[in-house]
Fold this sequence. Notes:
Helix content is 48%, strand content 0%. The radius of gyration is 19 Å and the shape is elongated. The longest helix is centred in the first third of the chain and has 21 residues, at 2-22. It is mainly alpha-helical. Heme C is lined by residues 31, 33-34, 36-38, 44, 51-52, 55-56, 64-67, 69-70, 81, 85.
Amino acid sequence: MMILKYAVAVLALCFVALSFAEEPVPLSKKMASCGKCHMGKMALTGKPVEEILAGLVRIREGKRPHPPGLQAFEAEQLPEVAAILSGVNADESPR
Length: 95
Ligand code: HEC
């Protein structure tokens, strides 16, 4: 009986771990820290998405100095990050 209980507990833990692993870190969570600096005077809202995207890429390539944080994004997430910063879909982006 003990073994069965143990096995069930292990299975349950695996399930929990798996459901976490399958859930990618939401973009909003990765971007939560950006607001510390990019709100108010340094907000990028209204700046064209292409310009922000170009800035993001240059920062990630190390061609432009920036506080750490941008390495957390996947390359394919950058257009979305740029769009959010620009304010294009800030409202309809629940992620
Ligand atoms: C500690 C403060 C700080 C934090 C946190 C921060 N930034 Fe910045 N960011 C800056 C500064 C300062 C600049 C201006 C650098 C420059 O002008 O070369 C900048 C510039 C940028 C630019 C270029 C803007 C342009 O004019 O082209 C982008 C894009 C950007 N940040 C995105 C982000 C994102 C996304 C995050 C969150 C992951 C973030 N930043 C977090 C300080 C910060």
